[in-house]
């Protein structure tokens, strides 16, 4: 492993002081002269058609400036999601927007609008839509087959004889099933075959900052202040959605108050202030309320399913037959269910496996990837099944995970896909030691009054990075290195941490480095969005590549300026030096400008993206400008892994639990920034614990109307729901296909936390698997008292 | 005509219609330059005993003269009238804690307080902590621990920390967690936030000692 | 004045949730106005009717016994059960609306159930006794009622003949309460499904919002009608001129004098030897047949 | 007309400095006025536009209502005393700790700094159908959306329901009942004192109200008699989350035990009915019994007799049973 100076060190990101002094400006913190405010009229019912809208009285209200209707925003065929619609497919979908001088006026104006709605059939529970004659969420069909919407109804016989709390198993959609190995032989070779109904609820993302945005136009150009997980990709999306050229959009999003996958490319709602502002000729601020965020923000698709798992006496999983029905929401196809198959294939490497999934459209809030999409659901659903099988066979769960652990040579799933690296055995072993698994495991089932001790663990693999993005750096005559980043600033610190790869490649002191991000007028390269755990991997690569490229340019420049061959020159400490002497970066920048051509950005590599080219061209002549595309080999899939172990006390009289210890270890390649990693890791683990503990939503089955529009009712975890200290560590071994050895870490901890908590509770309940998250006191007590779930049927929105 | 609209039930006797009339009548006096909340015309005449609209607030050690609507919350006044956008609104319903400020040293949700309720009180926001470039000990502690991720919750958390530590400088980690349990962090950076708070208490103790 | 109470359902659609309770006051005022009007009329305007002499009685109803049976024991008992049920229903239904709150729902539906049982019993009883015809209001009776009204309002006209067993006004009252009663009973029985009862757990989704709206409107309207009607009914029951009827609802019979005075024996012939009170079984009094008595 | 649940509409704000002034204002504005204490209940209604007022009478400026005073017979808590003040009050901590403990379990530190004890006991139910502005019984309509074959009623009542199945959300209410507290209510015609257990009412009594307070009434003082001073207390609250949550069920008890025998007892349970229930029957049954596991278990069984669970709240029966049991024998089996 290379000896890094920056990689592997803990740094506080340079934007931290702004964040904690209140100087950091998020979207809602901007003001513009003459700014209007908009309020939305949204659908009161889950599926309907607007027959007519009369907003004349609203327009007459003093202070109302403009009204924006669906006819004025781009509309395409479903599943395209318009910003405003005449056929809402979920309760809370915006129909019309009013811009007024203030919010009170805008809200009062909304109350003056008359709308005539024609209610249409709606569906909340995916199983209802699969029944013969069941309602469809959309006029075009009820399920996705691959990316196509089609109609799928199961035969009545699928439902016959299936208990209300059991999973009916019908045919999946063609494009969404795969298998490998001999499944029946696998089950035949197993010492135990276990079957379980699976359940994971839908949960909203609920970032702290709602998707508020503010827009205005100047000289035909759109200025948009938004909240996004990417500057580069969101800007592109805004241009597409509003229908203007990329160069006509300026996107400002230096800070993002959380996204978790819900703001990957910004928000479709940004179209509203953009178009209203153009119509009204004044800036428009659209503050999104928490209730609106619940509806129009995004959510993780819930799942219902069934697993049949065969295990040998030594813990080896011989066969896994997985069937999943995904609650897709009303719009674009969600990949969660197919990812679930991949994740279980990689995490447990079954000898034979089949995955069959159906993604059903429902009239519930739109879904989007949520931190560990698919992984969280399947790990939290399947880990307790594995744990239960282990209990029945008398094998230690850690042993089961070790026996089934993937390694570097593993090829898994549908592909089968090779992976770049997997230090899973190391992670399991290290976590077992840190947690003191064998000793704590002894305490499993111990009674103390009404409390029972439970110990559980889960392994969560998740996709850890993309490649092929661009890097852009400038060495200016001030002697500083400017690293341009088009990723968002989500607070994961990766906008800064991945920039270190460029500084590292140039062996440049960090104090003189400036990371440039968050504002498209600052000339940003084509970067990935900060999602899918890809940033760390993708942008350490891109920045390393561009750092190396800048180094080459410096060497060539030095050779030209000072004589000798370029390869004889070295770059370190802010200087390029060799046989002919040395240049500081400041001098090099000046010489680069003087020479022009490829040195100052006037000539650029062929293979870079247009966005990068435009940015680099704009920077041309300002210093030594290097732009490069990540062309490093990436021949296998990159996966990261997190294992979590949890010990808790479950009170059988109240159904409440107290977590005593949470220990997690990651295989995320080389650690970029230990303190940020621990924060990311623990944060993810806690989010996962929250999903298993209390986080949920509730939609009334009769009306299809959301009842939990506020955080108080959705119940994400608070500081008191977890121990005051959690342990997170990493194996810190390098991935061979990343120049600094790093892999992404954003997502796998969530599944690990959720899975470990469910397993610990399952363990405390003596192996009873409560297949209905979140595991709130009502469910625990119902199982303890009556051995059944309280709702008695597989309801998806309780 | 009486029409009982239950969804927006006027407390028994005032009908929705009357209300809308009121809005129409007062709409005429909307002033430009007002942000989210209009600056005039909330009600036609100031009744006896009613509050005056023009008030002086003491915010971050300064007296600020400001025109405040009757129904205006402190969070909105701070953000939209006084330009103090460091105070964040995450839910506007006392469900998240991002808007926490100190009122006479006590942490409160500024989304759930009327501005008129803090007349005569000392309001401290995140902008009022640092002395120029010199960070408040609590802020310094957060920097030293690299607390927070997206940091939308940070101003609220930090104000809760300041209020808590000023009142009880020597809390245990558990007690500190309880004291900060009115602030939500969706990044769930709780362990690091607690580290920051414990370090902050230490800094505060040493500055006062 | 708005006749109905409306609300916005969870889909923000306007739905009927009942009649405006202003109608209750309207009914009370209307009932009171009638009562006062009638009282004033009876006290000051109407010519005092002189009771018939024994001779006149003898002439008018030569064969009639001393006590002429008007209400059988069964019908009296059922009337008083009905009275208790209706009064209970009105009190439990309306008093909370007037502001005096108490746990009324269970009492209300139990009383309602009693009313429903009564309705069924009464219908079966009336049908089995073939007494439906006695309640028929003929055109002739309507004409007579009109004539009587003219006299009352001081206009000239022929003195209409006396009624048979049931005065037209009584019959009209009966029909009004019958329709209102059937409406409240039918809607009320359905409304029991909206709350938890011993028979079924609450399920307000059995009917659509609009259907329920109609139920509530019907129930409310009928109940309001009841308020007015019962006020008038009780007024007459207490009015000195009508005490003979009130007593008959307690004792079952009227005197031969009242029989001759208030009724037209040709329209309501009674058997000479008819023995009241105990005569329930052997009563052979030909009720004025299915033809409607006369004509 | 379209519906929007956002942005607080205009109203007139009054900040009287004495109770008489407040009462005068309330009478002047009648039913379109609303009393404002900490506002933690009020803001939801106003911001959601589900209830509207023309006048808001803010009691915070009435200094006497914010004070906690030890008296010869106990302690008088001003209704406007913030919950955090109640938690920290030395007299309450020492002699009536069940109240301090209950108040400390309310929501979050900031809400306890802002929310008042008077507001905590007078707050409206949290039934999400009702609070969403649906036209239910409690809102003057004629349906209970929470009691249908498909309702989401995990949080709702198992006892004392009458059309409406909403529950009392207050944490301090059961504690106050266990302490035999008295509510001092003032209005135009004077002052009256109401026993805590009868201060709260169920839907049978008035489906639109949670307490006996009516227009023009101001809850001024919560009077704790010294009858239970220093008794052995118990409070427990079961929730989904350990902060920011209303009780699924909570319990408060005060016991006098001498020589292992229960001499006197008060037990109250919240979250199971529209009002916090004082368990008279259970109290009677355990007096004179030994304070042990058997008594506690029998009390738990007795407490839930007659419970009628709805579709999703059957768990509240064992939960209430267990909590009542624990309120007598403590958390751990002895």
Plain-language structure description:
The complex is a heterotetramer of chains A (798), B (209), C (295) and D (334). Chain A is α+β, with helices and mostly antiparallel strands and 798 residues long. Chain A has three domains: 90 residues, Aldehyde Oxidoreductase, domain 3 (Alpha-Beta Complex); 318 residues, Aldehyde oxidase/xanthine dehydrogenase, molybdopterin binding domain (Aldehyde Oxidoreductase, domain 4, 2-Layer Sandwich), CATH 3.30.365; 163 residues, Aldehyde oxidase/xanthine dehydrogenase, molybdopterin binding domain (Aldehyde Oxidoreductase, domain 4). Chain A is built from 23 helices and 32 strands. In chain A, helix 10 runs parallel beside helix 11. Chain A is globular. Chain A starts with 15 loop residues before the first helix and ends in a 12-residue tail after the last helix. By secondary structure, chain B is of the alpha+beta class. Chain B is 33% helix and 12% strand. Chain B is globular, with a radius of gyration of 20 Å. Chain C has one domain: Fumarate Reductase Cytochrome B subunit, CATH 1.20.950.20. In chain C, strands 1-2 form a two-stranded antiparallel sheet. In chain C, strands 3-4 form a two-stranded antiparallel ribbon. The C terminus of chain C is likely disordered. Chain D contains 13 helices and 13 strands. Chain D is of the alpha+beta class. The chains are: A alpha+beta (798), B alpha+beta (209), C mainly alpha (295), D alpha+beta (334). Chains A and B meet through helix 1, helix 3 and helix 20 of A and helix 1, helix 3, helix 4, helix 5 and helix 6 of B.
